[in-house]
Specification:
The protein has 153 residues and is of the alpha+beta class. 33% of the residues lie in helices and 36% in strands.
């Protein structure tokens, strides 16, 4: 491909809301309340619904952890939703404007890290980017594996 770029962001907190209502109205309310705290949300992922409930995961900067913990406790009290918070993660993004026309990039990235048995916390994609959230413990290994795979073109 030739124009592939790998970027990283450190000190990322993953917030997962388990058993949350599977509605865009609930998601909008959560994100509005977080915006009111002046917190920026980066990655967002929602698996398929299981009836009326779903899971919702998103990432923020570790510097906003205290505010999010307060929000999470309030949300848990109001709704009974289980809130899981995990900090000190890293986001690794593989970007290539040609990715949308080049089959196999996801295969290349995931094959490269498969042998490492890394803990991939979250995956988000677009037509031109694959972003992975990894733990501190797996960061160097995953980054090295992805760099080798991408540079082995």
């Amino acid at each position: 491909m030739g124009t592939t770029e790998i970027s990283t962001v450190s000190n990322i907190t993953l917030v997962t809301l388990q058993g949350s209502p599977a509605t865009t109205g609930f998601m909008a309310e959560v994100f509005e309340r977080i915006a009111e705290l002046d917190i920026n949300i980066d990655m967002i992922s929602m698996p398929p619904n299981h009836g009326a409930n779903a899971g919702l995961s998103f990432t923020i900067s570790d510097q906003d952890l205290i505010e999010v913990l307060s929000f999470a406790n309030t949300l848990k009290t109001e709704t009974g939703i289980k809130v899981i918070v995990s900090s000190v993660n890293h986001k690794i993004s593989v970007y290539d404007p040609q990715m949308k026309n080049t089959p196999g990039m996801a295969a290349r990235v995931f094959s490269a890290i498969a042998a490492s048995d890394a803990d991939i916390r979250l995956v988000t994609t677009s037509e031109v980017e694959i972003s992975l959230l990894v733990t501190e413990a797996d960061y160097d290994t995953v980054l090295e594996a992805i760099e080798e795979a991408v540079n082995a073109e």
